[in-house]
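Can't attach files on this board, so I'm pasting raw text. These are the components:
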Amino acid sequence: MSAPPDPTVAKPIVAHTPMVNEMRLNARQCLAALGLVLLVILLTPSVWKAVERFDTGPDYRIPYDLSKDYWLYQRWIDRADSRSIILLGDSVVWGEYVLPDGTWAHFLNDQGGRPDRFVNGGVNGLFPLALEGLVDHYGKALRHRKILLHCNLLWLSSPKADLQTDKEERFNHALLVPQFFPRIPCYKAGANERLSAVIDRQVTFCGWVNHLQAAYFGQKSILAWTLADDGGDPPRYPNSYKNPLAHITFRVPSAPALDPLRGPASPRHKPWTQNGGPTSFEWVSLDSSLQWAAFRRVVATLRSRGDDVFVILGPFNEHMIASDSRGPYLKLRDGVLAWLDESKIPHSAPESLPSALYADASHPLTDGYALLARMTLTNQSFQAWLKAN
Amino acid sequence: MLFHTWPFLVFMLVVLPVFFALRRTQWWIPWLMAASYFFYGWWNPYYLALVFYSTVLDFFLVALMDHCPPGPGKVDIASRLWRWRFDDWVLKTAFLLSLGLAAAIVAAALCGPPTLRPALAAMSALVFLMTLGSLLSNRRIWLLISLVNNLALLLFFKYARFVVQNANALLASFHWHARLPDPSTLMPLGFTYVLPVGISFFTFQSLSYTIDFYFGRVQRERHFLRFATFVCFFPQLMAGPIERARHLLPQFRQFPAIRVQNFTEGVSLFLVGLFKKLALANYLAFYVDRVYENPKNFDAPALLLATFAFAWQIFFDFSGYTDMARGVARILGFNLILNFNNPYLATGLGDFWSRWHISLSTWFRDYVYIPLGGNRRGALATYRNLFITFLLSGIWHGANWTFVIWGGLHALGVMATRELERSAFYRDQVPRLAKQFGVFAFVCFAWIFFRAESLSDARLVVSRIFTAAWSDPQIPALMLALVAAVWLYQFVYESRFRELLQTSVVRVGAATLMVIYLFLCSSGGGAFIYFQF
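---
Top answer:
Structure tokens for the assembled complex are below.
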């Protein structure tokens, strides 16, 4: 809107591409840039693996804060000894209320007398629909191995847990669930989010970027990290003047040595009866369940990869089930067992642990895991499966 | 659909091959139009009706204008009204049709549902004007109808609530009990009253065609689909650049030449735009929002830096969008006009406005400033014209007093510095850097009013900048470094060291870094600021 000299008729506008910077690449320069980008994208994850220290050790499990670092999970499974048995499942396998030396995998190793035979491959909050995504896209190393797959009926305990409701729900590991098919009614992400998830799974570099953010920048993008506040009132912004690059230590963070939220000393580590009484569950039927269908697909995928799968059903905290919902539960449980029998999948369904050994509907406390490991190891089917091959 | 989202990539992966495959047929224009409508409808399919309506009306208005005698000759209204005489069968048909239509609309308004009445009343007034235009066989009436229609759409969807609220406040201040109804109550059939995305852009673009035709600057477009594609061409439909018919329409007359250069230039433009939006604008927005959402909690340095950050945020956001728009168009083989030319290197306010949102500035220059008389009627009239033009430009940006003040500030700034900028002293004696700093400081000051949520917030920001204590602004150093790097790049670009930037090493290196940086730092979506206009 500068005052023009006097034009009553605007000048014709030139028909070429005026630019106001020198970022006008020709074909050769475009190819060169593309080549460089591809080189970085393809090589960085591999180089990173060689450079970054990843200390695992006995009873290692993916730290809670890195639950969504699927690239790290893949790396963890990749490096597991080929003769070891991977325990796959949700937070029951991972050990929500217990320390690393109080998990199912720990007691299986301990009581079995062979350290490192069982690997804790559990991920917090990994329901079957997400487990399917994890196995499909980040579990390529799960091939020709022995796998102990946990089946947690908690995910069938209500239409909401089964992700069947029409109302939008926010849930963990949304990036792992099927984005387009089968349709998950309560997953209302836009097309961009869904396509992003699909692309993230396919491009290893994206997984690596996610790892970088999860491991060093509090699960934030580097830019968001520089703006993060300390949660105080008034808030302070401790990262404003920090150099993000200096924050990359090339060492995967391990779980805190003293986890105040887990272990016998934590206030959360207590029997479920201290928090409430029996509950009525709105069990979904196996025929309609999205989670159960996903679980079956996971089993099929693993078996198609030559994995030797053993399924452990529960043990669900039956003490917590109100009498009116016990019948549907037993029907569900029988249905799962019937399918496992029918599909000739070795399995066991341990009886419920004593009530005091549960922290909630499905998570045992430390002693509960010790007992569960004992029950597992003494189970005949399991022993037969262990000895096979 | 946003350019920086994956659905857009999928969209392009479908549109582009089909577009090229249709190059030897007549179907490439319908395909482009269908793609554009799909692109716009992705956001909200109901808005498509509005774009289509505007397109159809302007297309036919210009066709009818073409059947009227050229030139602004006087019409003997009395004789025409008393003795209905038609020299042209098209006008005669238009007269009969519009008369019939007006009657039908009035009947529908009387018998139809009450919610339809306001819309039908407006339509009947418009159709009645068309009847009059046919009868009087006068170009000016057709132009008037186009102006009324496009501006009425804009006024209703964008400004009606603002006008009603202010009018009601005024009535209340006089203790009058009358109250104007909220515009949402006028929406037909229970449709929601929301601002259609890009309405300011496509109405201005369509309007420019009718005005240019009226003044004989552009030929009538006889191919409806070609004209419709011009109005809704998807790269620039949502947020410009506001194209002119004489620039874009001829490009739709034949299939563009397919060249590798189109692709490489388009990709270069798109990459720069993407970087500006995702890596810079979105990043700056975090800090700006933090401060501007609660200005009373921040001291002078934070407010100053947030204002400075907003200046860059809006530049990166809007110029990023237009870079991407131009890039997409270029990949298809079309050229869109330049919309930003490193505005923060301007050495005067006049210069700033020849570098900032160029397509809008030139639109206002050609269709408001010059028709008002421009600078041809003496100094006083020039200043008046400048003031009106800038004020309208401010209002164009949104229905809020903050935008009015923003436009007013620029008007006053341009008026105050116009003579100074023309003086030899300013031109030759004042160091370039000082001039650039002065312009940037003024522009930043005006941005306070643009960004603030309300006038009281804007006043608070201004007063606290001068009165509040000095404390740590806690702005990320990385943010400052990035802006400094871009500013430095622009300085070098306009200096004698520009050749440095032309080397392959710099170009390839910068492009590679931008892509990697996008992967590493991108923090997701966010719509463009200018979509709300």
